[in-house]
Every structure is written in C-alpha cells, then in structure tokens.
Amino acid sequence: MRYPYERFITFLLSRKVDVNEVFEHIDLPQVGLLGLADRRERIRESAPPALLRYMKDPSKKMVFRDGILAWANDRGVLELWERQREFGRKIDSGLEGASNIFLNPQARTVLGTMLLSDAPPDEISEVIKEQFSLEFSSPVLACFRRIFWDLEGMGRKEWEYFLPELAADQRHILSMGIKGLRPNDIRYAIGAETESKPKEVLQDILTHAHHQFRQAMTSANPASAGAFKWADLATKVAGAIGASRGGGGRGEDDEIPGTAAAGMFSVVVESPRVVTLDDLEGEIAQNQTALERAMEAGVT
Questions:
Q1: Is the CA virtual torsion 178, 181, 182, 187 positive or negative?
Q2: pLDDT confidence of residue 260
Q3: Partner of 79 for a Cys bridge, out of 95, 229, 239, 275, CB 3.0 to 4.6 A?
Q4: What's the mean pLDDT in 137-159?
Q5: 6-14 and 33-46 helices, crossing angle to 10°
C-alpha cells in the first residue's frame, strides 16, 4: 500500500523511529511489517555509508554525517534532517507550519481534502487559520504537499486502498475531495462558516432543481418522480434571480440570514491531542509521553 506521506515514512525509518508508534499517536493507519521492511531495504539501497552505519548501529549515536544531507535532499526530506540535533537543529518556517498541520489529525484531514478538491490557496489559508489557528503560507503549503501529502504519488487505486484504513470521520471528509466536491461544499461539511451571496445561493438551488427536473422527466412517470415539484421550484428561483438583477433594493453582496444549510452537512470531529516535531524527537524532559518513549525505543 502507498501513502500520501511516503516521504515522512522514509524520514522516520532513516531516523530509526518506530513508525507505527508515531502513527498511533497522530491517528494514522498502521503500516504493515512487510511494507516497512521493503521501505527499509529501499533506503539501504540508496543511503550513503554514514547513514547505513547509523541505521545498523544499535546505539543512537551518529558517528559520521557525510552524504546524509545530500541523500535527504534527493529524497525530499532535507528540512527534516537539517532539524536534527546532529545538523544544528535548523528551523525552517515552512516545515514547522506544515508539520503542525500534519500532526493535527483534524487539520491534516481538512487540508488534505481541500487539496484534493483543488481549492485555491487563499481559501485554504482562510480555513486553516480560522478553524485551527495555525500558520499558513506558500512555504507551508509547498512543504506539506511535498513531505506530508504528495498527491502526485497517489492514483485512484492507491486512494481506494488507503481510504478504508482511515478513521470514519477522516474517511468521510476526504472522500468529498476525491469525489470532486467544490471547496464551499467541503467548508460546510467541516462546519467552516462562509459568507454566501444571495445570487450564488439561488444559482445553486436553480442548478439542483433543474437537474432533478430533467432526471424526473426521463422516468416512466414524471409526475410521480416529482417533475412538477422541481419545475415549480426552478421557476420560482429563476424568477427570484431575475428580480434581483432588476434591482429590488438589495445588493449582490447582502448576506443570507441563518446557517441552516451548514447544519445539514456538519461533521463533528473530536479534538485530538496534537503533537509537535519536538515530541517526535523526544526532547521534552518532563511528563514524557508514550510517543517520546516510542522514539527512544525505535532503534532498528
């Protein structure tokens, strides 16, 4: 099975971290033992001697470093390795922001879904900042797409295998992006309020009513299929649109009162415990978490 976060798995394995312990704490599906073994073998085939020695050494100490950063750059995980203590803990703002989103199951799911739906960056930024109070910028998006959510490496078949492995709430939201729902529909699904213009709302209703009317007219008994009901709704909405264009005292930017539509699609996602990259490195001395213990025990 392939995952959109293959590069992150590569980093964890090269850093001798127990992948499944990490994934358990950030609500991601477990990777099979054979899959992990295959990935370790691919790392060994391309790794420089210094990294090979580190991976084989039962201790945590990295004796040599030559070639490791160049290898990491080729694998698309340079920022993660530069952040390690052996290389001076260089902090990259794009990586920090992207990892904060990825390690938060709810934020990861929402951003992943909006990327699948081809939502524009400015709309993604608005949702991430308003819903999760997380930093978002072009470098954050670029890093997230490369390390944590690589859509180019995931075809239809890969998504068909991957989705069933996810928790139900994540699976439900991500399926919307895969089905090609519009960004606004996804925002309703996650409970993100949007300012809808009357014209846009009426146009959506008209499109839906017209589609249902055409479907009903192809049935054996159009009346019983609701053709007249949909025709009546479409006629009324078309009239409302025509009246608004004629200037009925309301501007196009007037807000729609009420949020009933959002409630129809609301999905409640439990707030998870959010971990950070520092948690992954096990450098917090007090109140050591299970994830930190897993990192310390993750020597292969």
A1: negative
A2: 30
A3: 95
A4: 93
A5: 70
Query: How many structural domains is the chain composed of?
Result: 3
Indicate if 172 and 202 belong to the same structural domain. no
Looking at 189, 220, 245, which one is the last position of a domain?
A: 189
> Where do runs of H (alpha helix) occur along the chain?
6-14, 19-25, 33-46, 49-56, 68-74, 78-82, 93-102, 105-116, 121-132, 138-143, 156-162, 168-178, 183-189, 198-217, 227-245, 260-265, 277-281, 290-297
**Same structural domain, 114 and 167:** yes
% of the chain with per-residue pLDDT over 90: 47
Amino acid at 166: L
Average pLDDT over residues 256-273: 37
Are residues 47 and 121 both part of a single domain? no
The pair of three-digit structure tokens given for residue 114, joined into one six-digit string:
């909006």
Task: Determine the structural domain holding residue 243 and report its residue range.
Answer: 198-254
The answer to whether 72 and 81 are in contact (CB under 8 A) is yes
Residue 296 sits at the vertex; the CA angle it makes with 292 and 300, to the nearest 5 degrees, is 135
pTM value surpassing 0.70:
no
Taking only the tens place, the pLDDT of each residue in 94-109 is 999 999 999 999 999 9
164 confidence band (pLDDT: 50, 70, 90): very high
- Mean pLDDT across the stretch 97-124? 92
